[in-house]
Fold this protein.
Amino acid sequence: MQSGQIAIGIDLGGTTFAVGAVSREGTLLAAARTDTPASRSADDICDALAAAAQAVAERAGVQDDEGIAGFGVGIPGHVDPRTCRITTCPNLHALDGVDIIAELQRRMPGWGAGFAANDAEAAAWGELRYGAGRAVDNLVLLTLGTGIGGAVAMNNRVIRGPRRILGEIGHMVVNPYSERRCGCGNFGCFETEAGKQAIIDKAVQALQAGRESLIAELAGNDPQRVTPEIIAQAARAGDEVAVEVYRCVGNWIGMAICSIIVLCDPDLVILGGGIAAAGEVLFEPVRRTVAQRSRAWGFDPANIVPAQLGNDAGIYGAAILVWEQSGCRAGADH
Ligand SMILES: [Zn+2]
């Protein structure tokens, strides 16, 4: 392997993490997904990440450290732009305040520069370079899951702003009358209206109001087992309650995209994350809302498209941080 031709991408999640070796041309040479250590101490997590990264590098044919250009980490939280320490990691609090790049460099000396970025920011790089956004220069990515992440690319680069909050679309206040409190402490954030829990709550409320629905059968008549996947499955089968849930959620997402269109003027809006896997039952109401409310701006709702890299988006995105010298760079300079 030629010197420095592989970047290691680490996609860190609350329940699992994935590590991949990506070539400069964008080929995923080897990858592995592992459970995030249950003990969840920062040391255990960093040990597990380093061990997985070393195993993946070996499987990718890296003979020695010379083959590695560097590594990137996508984090489900925020990185302080000055210190590169993780400020908050809502699903992995053990990492709050940790300089994850320095910790990994200590365990993998000789692996070159390390970069850290928010996971949506990394995923946007992935879609921009190797995924749905390859042909455009300006895009907005929304990752629809437990929370709603977002990132913006302009002029063919992902941008993040001086406090690295640019693109935190999940925390736009969209419903001033909401009593749902967000993880950020605010009320009426976009992610409290259209995130995973909101979707489940809408379906469960309909069931509890006595509505007949395939959702009940698919969840074994247990409200605790209702998931967005089950609701999507019922919606695809034409179930009225499930279709209504996705219509409502799609309407919220569509309205948020209308704001994004006038704020960012994107060529494409890409929807990724587990909730976007619902497919047309979600995309149809999203596009319809945008068509109705964005007539003035000439944005074609067909340019709201699914993410292409799926589960590997986070790996690609984290590896691209190395090629693009993007994200928060720590350890190498001090
Ligand atoms: Zn919020």
